Amino acid sequence: MNSHVQRLIEERDCDTVRDLLDDDASLNELMMHKLISTRKALEELVSAVEALYRTQSSPTCKTSTAWSEMYIQAMSGELFESTIFEEILNSVKKLPSDIMHGLLHDLGEIFHDEDLEKVITNLDELTRNLDEPEVPLRSQYDVHHETLRTTVVAQKVSLGKNTSTLSAQDAAYTKIVDRTFSELQKKFGWALINPQNLFLNEALIYDSKSPHREVFAPRPRFAIERALSSPHDYLGCECCGGAESGLSATQPATAILYQLCLESGSVINTADLWSAFWIIVGTEGSKDEEAERERVL
């Protein structure tokens, strides 16, 4: 909520901020709307984890990460920029057309994305007219298109790689692979966000092992110290002033004494403490100062 209001202020939308502060109906409407969008974003995040886990099962992927580990990294906002994500996504480029076909259909059931559906349609059209249907298409990133080259120069052997010429159908499949990689990267980037940045994520996510401790565990010392040091936070009256107003005679006497003790050292002179207290609460212009002090005591 704090971040949302701060963003509205930066956008100079002060009227909306005022409505949220003064109108309960406007605040309730915002809560209901944002809860729906936050829940949807979390569902997309979990779907992205499932999609990445299925992609990992392809034969070209060398990583083997548990679903739970992916989920933990996703919930901490670290999965999208991790080496796990990079290795799994790069393995997609090396898939032959038959395995790519099955993977895209699995991912299409998870994402329900129109752009991804178009890629599937293009792949179906390409594989339907193969010269050799039993032989899958391979992209330029596949190791089958690379050969080692050995060169001897000045009695030194150097190894290099040669890339064989692609057929027309393999070249067309390479374009589909590049498009698939781009669409998946965009989709994962949109879904694998940091959930801690979502509005009202505290209502839907437990981010600690004991999420209720800070709310339900009593902290009487903290409450009493805050009440004595900042009585305005609890009283809400104009006479006590805000947090930056300092000591004033209108504050409760106990609060004044407590704040004076905080400003003192380890050893407190009672006479000095009383003098400082009297300077704050004493009546200015009193004719009988001694009688006034006794009355206050």
TrEMBL record:
Q: Which GO terms describe its biological process?
A: DNA replication initiation
Entries under InterPro entries matching the protein: ORC3, ORC_WH_C
Task: Name the GO cellular-component terms.
Answer: DNA replication preinitiation complex; nuclear origin of replication recognition complex; nuclear pre-replicative complex
Q: What's one GO MF term for it? A: DNA replication origin binding
Cite the CDD domains for this sequence.
Orc3
Residues in domain Origin recognition complex subunit 3 winged helix C-terminal?
221-293
Please indicate which superkingdom the organism of origin belongs to: Eukaryota
PANTHER family, per the entry: ORIGIN RECOGNITION COMPLEX SUBUNIT 3
User: This protein is called what?
Assistant: Origin recognition complex subunit 3 winged helix C-terminal domain-containing protein
